[in-house]
Inverse folding.
């Protein structure tokens, strides 16, 4: 990538991370904090933890569409202001109802899709995959850092202090956006990075994409529901208070990363994606059954957490890759937008049903529920089609070559390694699905007039 592209990607990844750090920091400490708020019940604690997923899931695609008209930086700043406002409301609230309102406002600052659209505005087509990968790595790192940092920071400033920290992080994000992120030369719709309303129906009719959307929904529903009870289990079983539980999360997450890396290599390089994914979902199911049967046993609890986070990290890395492989070449952004909305709605549902189960049946009921979700997901994963191992390539088209889009697309489909080709004349772009091992890039570029 050129220096300008690297600066743009790194700064936008930082905007993503400063927002996510605060959101994830409260996961390991929220349940213990919220149960002492006025009017709290296990159900309402779950609602408070998950409610931001509802507003985020519903609003992120509209935010992206509005940014096409009003400007990316305007919508990012607006979203971060809403996020800061929600964080302040949650910090000032002494009741569970006030925290629920604050968390809903936090989610309403749904800037994720806008940040990705701005990444696309500021990077060339041939570098966009690398840029999106950098943002993805930042998201994963933010999650793991936040789980460890949350209990440590809460020990000094409390959970209300973490909410105030989110206000500060939102302001940092606005400053980075305004003063560090370059201004795009022009705004345009990027089908590989943004949802296109006209393509939503086709994506929703794609059974393989729906299967993957259910996977990310179930994964984050399980995560959110689990954090309603796991901190209490660690306190009772290991006699470790909430503020010291980072000493458990840190080694568990380190082991999970060590397990994840060879699994991802096997999935991508050696083309064992389906087997790795089915194995990971089976691991999630095993971990929840272990917690249901013997969570009070120290060894069982630690082993179950290691299995859970190892499988969680494998699926977090694998599912976006599978979406890219399954999506039509010109609908990747739409598929990713719906996938991301499914993730956030899973957070909401996990909080709601996890809180309900905890209130009516205790810890065991929560793990019974998450095990049932994992079992349904295992059935869906086991019956999915073998992944195509194709990647999306964007190819600029010379001005004189874009006239007969369908004819050019037909010729591009004859290029070795090209499985699908869609040419959008007004964008002067060809969207290709290719087998990287067989793709004749020089021949495709010659047809498109790109060289």
């Amino acid at each position: 990538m050129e220096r300008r592209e690297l600066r743009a990607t790194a700064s936008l990844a930082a905007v993503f991370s400063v927002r996510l750090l605060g959101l994830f920091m409260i996961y390991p400490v929220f349940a213990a904090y919220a149960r002492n708020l006025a009017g709290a019940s296990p159900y309402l604690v779950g609602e408070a933890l998950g409610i931001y997923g509802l507003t985020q899931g519903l609003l992120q695609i509209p935010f992206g569409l509005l940014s096409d008209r009003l400007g990316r930086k305007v919508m990012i700043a607006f979203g971060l202001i809403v996020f800061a406002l929600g964080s302040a409301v949650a910090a000032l609230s002494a009741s569970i109802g006030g925290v629920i309102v604050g968390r809903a406002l936090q989610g309403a600052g749904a800037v994720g899709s806008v940040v990705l659209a701005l990444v696309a505005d500021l990077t060339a087509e041939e570098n966009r995959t690398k840029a999106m990968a950098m943002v993805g790595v930042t998201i994963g790192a933010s999650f793991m850092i936040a789980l460890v940092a949350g209990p440590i920071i809460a020990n000094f400033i409390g959970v209300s202090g973490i909410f105030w920290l989110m206000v500060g992080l939102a302001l940092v994000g606005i400053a980075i956006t305004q003063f560090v992120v370059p201004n795009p030369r022009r705004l345009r719709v990027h089908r590989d990075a943004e949802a296109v309303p006209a393509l939503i129906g086709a994506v929703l009719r794609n059974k393989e994409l729906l299967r993957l959307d259910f996977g990310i929904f179930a994964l984050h529903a399980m995560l959110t529901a689990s954090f309603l009870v796991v901190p209490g289990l660690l306190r009772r079983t290991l006699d470790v208070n909430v503020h010291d539980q980072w000493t458990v999360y840190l080694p568990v997450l380190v082991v999970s990363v060590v397990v994840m890396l060879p699994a991802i290599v096997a999935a991508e390089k050696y083309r064992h994606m389906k087997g790795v994914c089915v194995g990971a979902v089976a691991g999630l199911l095993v971990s929840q059954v272990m917690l249901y049967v013997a969570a009070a046993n120290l060894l069982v609890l630690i082993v179950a957490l290691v299995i859970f986070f190892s499988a969680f990290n494998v699926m977090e890395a694998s599912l976006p890759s599978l979406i890219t492989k399954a999506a039509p070449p010109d609908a990747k952004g739409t598929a990713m937008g719906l996938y991301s909305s499914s993730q956030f709605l899973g957070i909401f549902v996990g909080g709601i049903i996890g809180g309900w189960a905890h209130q009516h049946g205790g810890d065991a009921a929560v793990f019974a529920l998450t095990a049932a979700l994992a079992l349904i997901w295992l059935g869906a994963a086991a019956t999915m089609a073998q992944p195509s191992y194709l990647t999306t390539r964007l190819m600029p088209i010379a001005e004189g070559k874009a006239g007969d889009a369908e004819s050019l697309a037909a010729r591009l489909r004859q290029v070795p390694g090209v499985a699908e080709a869609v040419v959008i004349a007004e964008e002067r772009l060809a969207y290709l699905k290719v087998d990287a091992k067989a793709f004749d890039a020089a021949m495709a570029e010659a047809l498109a007039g790109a060289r």
Q: What stands out?
A: The chain has a mean pLDDT of 93. The two ends are 19 Å apart (CA to CA). The CA atoms of residues 37 and 94 lie 6 Å apart. The first helix runs from residue 3 to 25.
